[in-house]
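Board notes (copied after class):
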Amino acid sequence: MPSEHDEIGLFRKELAEALPSANIPTLLLLLYQFTGEERWLLAPFTPEASRWDDNDSGGLPPAIQEEVRSAALEAIVAWKQSGQIEKPRPTADELIRMMTVSEAQPIPADYAQLMLHKLNRYAGEAPSPIGLPEDFKVLIIGAGMSGIAAAFRLRQAGVEYTIIEKQDQAGGVWHSHHYPGCGVDTPGHLYSYSFADGDWTTFFPLQGEVEGYFQGVAKASGVLEEVQFGTECATTRYNEQTHTWHSLLRRSDGSEETLVTNAVVSAVGAFTTPKWPDIPGLHDFDGPVVHTSKWAPDIDLEGKRVAVIGNGASAMQLVPAIADTVGSLTIFQRSRQWAAPFPKFRKPVPEAVRFLLREVPQYQWLYRLRLSWIFDSQVHEALLKDPEWKHPERSINATNEGHREVFTRYIKDQLADRPDLVAKVTPTFPPFGKRMLLDNGWYNALKKRHVKLVDEGVTAVNGRKVSSTGGEEHEVDVLIVATGYDVARFLSPVEVVGRGGTSVREAWDDDDSRAYLGTVVPQLPNFFMLYGPNTALGHGGSFIFTVECQIDYVLSALRQMAQHSLREIECRSDVYDAYNEKIQAMHQKMIWSHPGMSTYFRNSRGRVVTNSPWRLLDFWNLTREAELADFVTVPPVGAVDSPRRQIPDHFAYDRAATEPFHFQPGSTSA
């Protein structure tokens, strides 16, 4: 059996092998935290600025980098031996200073508490127990990313729940989606729960690894064994007399059961209902027709003439993945998309780095904290319209114009030998107006001789012939539909009927979805949505953080129900209306209301229903606690008549906060 001395020696050896691949700005944060020495936040150790990547070298000279690594080796080994950290919990002021130096840009002081919260969560902070009555039960609908997290937190808080999933495994869309090239466009270390680190093998993991992560968390936490698979909720109906929800559960074998619970948490997600284009003859195509959301693993593409309808996120992942398999490939695009450089596409996380992330948790926490600023927060200001901007048709402010210049230059560089394609793919609308995409090899695929980009939509399908807007016919063997999802109709997989027999579809007039904080709706007492209207992150970042904020809000509501012996908690209509008026007014100042493009962010009325206008900091502050003053309760409590939550009103373009954008080689999209 190896001695402690031998174990430390082995650790030192493995650490020394790992540090050359470590992120220097993160090591500097770690050195300051482990040693308390000020010099690690001062010249010559201050990193240079880098936009939208993790800035592994910090822009520092090789000799300085080596000095940092050598010091980190000694500091980490000393911690391993003693367990002592000079600054185990930095103060708010210290953390802002640390991050400002690490990111080489000013971090607003109001982010301090959010960053401290994240570090505490990474370190294992859990919710306190909630003392609800023993017979109080919650139904969680869905065992994907949101449902697993909700079940985990409810379990920690001691709340009894039933969790159902219509599929045969956990993982949600990451289990159901299998099209070639499917993966995340967020760094894996950011696309992870705060309470469960991910040992990712690639920086931007593909579908199988993401599915494995969620299933692994569900298994390790004990949630997996509680999920009732092959079970969908057909209808959930509120009973006003008993203050309970009656949910009709339908099993895969055709049997049915009515489950009665005190509350419902919907975790059905938004990417569940495929959106099929209204094209005459599409479903009568004389050959295989497949939507990317319902991929057929046995579909044969080898040497076939394949057509892809659409050029959004799923198409940009799919096309490069199949281009070398098919005989010919025809892509139909109705509109153009911005795609940013993606230098870490399919790049593996070196085993040495995985060792460092696993064995030195503080390094991982600080690394994740840096990513959360780079990808979550800093781009938000650039999406606000400058009312004095002179070129609103092409960009919305100086920084956004800089984005346009960088992305246009990238397109021209990638397609230098195909000027005909440059004209076809360069959008006219401002960057970030639609979902910002990443170049998974898209432009290289378009240049292949057997690949044809048709800058038109499809008007009809007849037999094996696909007709485009210009009247040209294209004969193909396989038709792939990559047109996305019906995301505007939130809660569409479940019929939800609330107070007075009003269904949520009636309340929302079909697709005019709205909610208070994306979570609660009048006439739906004790009903909570995860990934509700206006919660998606159009400015980049990890949506998992948003969902965890919503779960904290749900726990706060349940805790106050327990404290006040409440049977019912229902969002007030005036609160709901005022909030939705507020966020739509905010959206009018943001890029997603720009008239120059169509986008799934807006519903049939032109209202932005998917994206959140909030900085993540604001949304976190709004959801930290549920305010009883925002609800009608049974029985009533005095807090209902107290002043309601104040919604921030600092939302305006700040020219000073959006400096001109300068291209940094190797930068990636937010």
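Comment from the instructor: Residues 639-643, 655-670 have pLDDT under 50 and may be disordered. The CA atoms of residues 136 and 657 lie 48 Å apart.
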